[in-house]
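Inputs:
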Amino acid sequence: MYKYDEYDHAMVAARVAEFSDQVKRRLAGEITEDQFKPLRLMNGLYLQLHAYMLRVAVPYGTLDSRQMRMLAHIARKYDRDYGHFTTRQNIQYNWIKLEDAPAILEDLASVEMHAIQTSGNCIRNISSDQWAGAAADEITDPRPWAELLRQWSSFHPEFSYLPRKFKIAVIAANEDRAAMRLHDIGIQIVEKDGEHGAAFYVGGGMGRTPMIAPLIKDFVPLGDMLSYAEACLRVYNRYGRRDNIYKARIKILIHELGADEYRRQVEEEFAHVKSLGIDPPKAEFDRIAEQFAPPALDASAPDAIDRSDPDFAVWVDQNVAAHKVPGHAIVNISLKPIGGIPGDASSAQIDLMADLAEKYSHDELRVTHAQNIVLPHVRKADLYAVWQALDGAGLATPNLDLISDIIACPGLDYCSLANARSIPVAQKIATRFSDLGRQKELGELKLKISGCINACGHHHAGHIGILGVDRKGTENYQLLLGGSGAEDVSLGTITGPGFDEDGVVDAIERVTDKYLAERSEGERFVDTFRRVGMAPFKEAIYG
Amino acid sequence: MVEYLQTGGEEPAVTLDAFLEQSNATAVRLEPDEDARALIPFLDRLALIEVAFPKFRDGRGYSSARILREAGYTGELRAQGDVLVDQIAYMKRCGFDSFAPEKPLNPDDVEAALTRWPAHYQGAADGAVPIWKLRHG
Amino acid sequence: MKLLTGNDLKTGFVTWWTGADWSLHIEDAADVGEHGEAILAVEEAARRVNAPYIIAGEQTADGPRPAHIKDRIRALGPTVRPDLTLKPADPAAGDWVI
C-alpha cells in the first residue's frame, strides 16, 4: 500500500488548515453560502436532506486496517454510528456538523486519508479494480498508475473549476470490475512489445445522457501518461459546455465534436504539453510501485478447503474468488443483507472487517463499486475462521453478483437531488427474492437502482436497472433491461411505462420468470436479453 | 504580497477583436471564450493581458493563463472580475501575477492563501518545483 | 399555507420558521403568507439559517405538513431508519410522510 512521505503529509495538513480557515470564515459570515459551496464540495462536504454529508476518499478503493478503524471511529464520534460505502469506492457520513468537519479531516489526515476533491467540478477520487494485486487475470497492479494520477490531479491549479465533475478509473485486466468505460476517462493498462502503457477511453458516463467512452488512444507510454491526461483535460476545460449544466460533462463535448475531432485536438495539445516536462521520471513510478509490491504469500499453503459445513460451502461458492497465488483466495464481503440498506455498515461491522484484514488479509481491505468490501489476500486455510466471524456480524450473506446484491444510491431517504427513494425498493426486491436457491437459479444478475437521473446507482449499467422519478409528486419507477458496466459494457433500455414501488417488484419477477422460460444453456440473464431482445420481456411485463 | 492586488487605472485594455484588427495597443483583455493562442504572435509587444473571470466558477481563464505563459509571455498577466481569495493560489500557479477582484480582498487573507501550500504535486506555470522532482533531486 | 425551511448553518439540521425563530419540529412551523422572501433574506444574512426556501404546506389536525414528499421526509428523517428520526419511539410517527 502507498505510504505518505513528508510531502504527502504536508499537503494534506495544508488542506486541513485551509478548510478549517474557510469553515471559520463561513461561520463568521465573511463568505456567503454561494462562495463557500464550491469550497466545501472540494472537501467532500454536501448539504443533504437532513444534515451535512461528508464523503471521504478511499483512493482506488484500498485501505489498511488502521484506516478502516478510523472510518469506524468517525462514525461513532461524529456521526450516528454507521457509514455508507458508495459506487465511487468512497464512504459517506450522513449526519456531519459543519463545525466538526475540520476535526474530522484532521483525524483522517492522521491515518493518511482525506476528503479532497470528492465533490466539486474537479478531478475526483481515482477508482480502480477492487481485486488489484490479487486477481489472476490482471497484467499488472493498476494502483501505482492510479496513485500517479491521484498526485497529479490533487490541487491541480488548472483543473479545479472544470465545466463539471471529472471521474477517472484505472484497470489492468480484461475483465472490467470498475465500470471503466462509463467514466470521463477510463484507463486500461495494456501491454505492447513487452512494455505496459495506458489505453485511454474518454467521454463515458451515466447520468442524464449515458455514453460508453470511445477509445481515444490505444497506447500511451507510462512516461507520457500525465501529459496525455493533461491534454485531454485542457481541451475539455477550454471547450466543454458551460451554458447548460446538463450538457457540461466531457461526454457531451466528445459526442458533439466526434471522437476523431476530439482526438485530433488532444493530439495537438499533447504535442505541446509533452514539451513541458509534466511527467515524472520512471524513478517516481518505481518508488510508488514498490509500495504496492505483493505481500509475501506462501504459494505452498494448502489449496484444499474443508467444505463440511454446508452454509460455509455456499458462501465459498458465491463470495470467494480465485487469487493469483495458490493456497489463497479473495474474500468478498457482501454489504447487502436481505432487507438491509445496500452499502451501509455499522461502526462495529467496520471495526470487525478491519480486525479480519489485520489478522487474515495482510492488513488490506478494498471497497468495491458495487458497495461491498473485499479482503484481497486470505489463506484458504483461514477462510472458515473468516466466515465464522463475518457470519456472527451479519456480514456473510452469500449473494455476490446475485439479484439481491443490489447497488442502490441513498435516494430520497437522504439525498437532496433524489426524486424517489431507492433503498425501500432494494429492500423489497431482496426480500421477494430472499430464497437463495431461487437467486442461484437466476445466476449472475446485476440489479442497480438510482433515485434520480444522475445515476449514482448505475441504473443504466444494470442487467436490470431501476430509475426513480417524480410523477406529479409521487414516486414512480422506470425499469431498464440489458445494461452492463463490465467488459461487455452496454446501456440498458427502458421497458415502457413506470410503476409504483410494489409494481416494480412485481415487474421484475415477471422479467426473471420470462428469463427462466427463455434461456438457453449457460446463458446469464443479460445474455438471454441480448439474444431475444426486449419484445418478449415487454409482453411479459405489460401483457 | 499586497502588491499583487490591482485596482486598475492605467491604460485600458482593448478587446481581443480590436487588438487583432489594428492596434498597437499594449494591453488586451481576453474573455473566457476567446482563444489565448490568437495572441501568441504578438506576445513580445504586450505589457498586460487581462483575463476576465465574469463568474468564479468559469475556469477557462486558468487554461488561457497557462497557455500564454507556456508560449513565453513575460508581461503582466492579470485576473480580473469575480476573483475570490480562495482561488488566487491556483491562479498564481497558472501564471497570473496580478489580481483585480471586483470585490476587494482582505490583504491578510491573500497573504495566507498565497503562502499556504508547502509544495505542489504538479508542474504548472509558476516555476514551482513539483514534489516528484523534490523527491528525486 | 406557505412554510419556510432550511438547515442550521453549524449543525446542518433541518429547521422550520416558527414566526419568531427556527425549530427542528415541523409542528412548530408558522404560515408566512406572502412574507417568505423578506424573512428569508433577513434570516439568511444573519446566519440563523442556511440555504432556506419556501414550500407549500397544509394545516392538519396534527400540525402543518409539507405538500411535497421530499420535505415530508426532511421533516421527520430517513424512512428506512425510524431509529434515526425525530420520533424514534413512535412507530406510527412516519405514517403521514409517504
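The longest strand of chain A covers residues 185-192. Flag for discussion at group meeting.
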